[in-house]
Amino acid sequence: MRVSYILAFITYCLSFSVIAQPLQVQHSNVRRGNVRRTDVKLERKLASLLDGFQGDVGLYVRHLRTGRTVAINADTLFPTASTIKIPIQCGLFAKLAAGELTYQQELIYRDSLHYDDGIVGSLKDGAKIPLSQVVMLMETISDNTGSLWCQALAGGGQTINTWLDANGFRQTRVNSRTPGREAYRKLYGWGQTTPRELAELLVYIREGRAISPDASERMYRNLSRQYWDGDALSQIPPDVKVATKNGAVNQSRSEVVLVHAPHGEYVFCLMTKNQKDERWIRSNEGATLLRHVSALIWQHFEPRSTWKPVAGYEKWW
């Protein structure tokens, strides 16, 4: 008799777990913003805009409130160029949260750190600078020497990649100066990611889920100060808050942007590779595409906006 009761109880528990598990997964998906639907109208307009691009292009768009998305080659790997500085910042803040570094601690620059002649790379040997300023220069003006310094302070590429993997970002990786990833570096350079993952990493920070709410807020503030605002950002009104990072190498132009639009925040990431146009001028095909895509998305989500870049604005780049 007791055996039958026990078997019945076990059967009941198993049946409950089978029923409950999908509900838990569904709840997790809603919380992480994974239940989405394609914005067919926007997808059609963007696909037409991307058609004929001389190179490979990927695009991901998500309206955070409505869940409307567009994904065009959104899960294809692309070179990160300087957008890898978002993951580097995450790895660095993990060290800060662990108490291994302090945000305002004084660092001493050495000539052995020199990579290029940006602001950090132009410091004299022995110069003192707070870590917070190096991070700001990494995200705001994309200082390469400062960024590689931050990568080393974060524990190196392997440590950053471990954090990315643990947080569900399994396609985004640091390659440069990372043992075992030399072959990937030859293909993608400093780092690799997909438009979807990079955009969702920015949302992850925005929602306070990267490291901790306070660390996420500090990182998000850093990403909201962008010196290089001549491409995607130039098509968004200057009084609208944005968080962003861009990157460029000879055959690639990329930008990820989270826009605090009046009718709801949206994020988009456009990435290119194998571009035929390698010119370092404003009319570069990839840079031009960034501007056109940004303008189209803004007008789609904010159809009543009458704002347009003022005539002659482009002369400042």
UniProtKB/TrEMBL annotation:
Key words, A-Z: Signal
Organism superkingdom: Bacteria
Domain annotation Beta-lactamase class A catalytic: ranges: 58-272
One of the GO biological process terms: response to antibiotic
GO molecular function: beta-lactamase activity
Cleavable signal peptide: 1-20
Keyword match Signal: yes
Record Pfam families: Beta-lactamase2
Catalytic activity: a beta-lactam + H2O = a substituted beta-amino acid
Listed name of the protein: Beta-lactamase
Organism: Fibrisoma limi BUZ 3
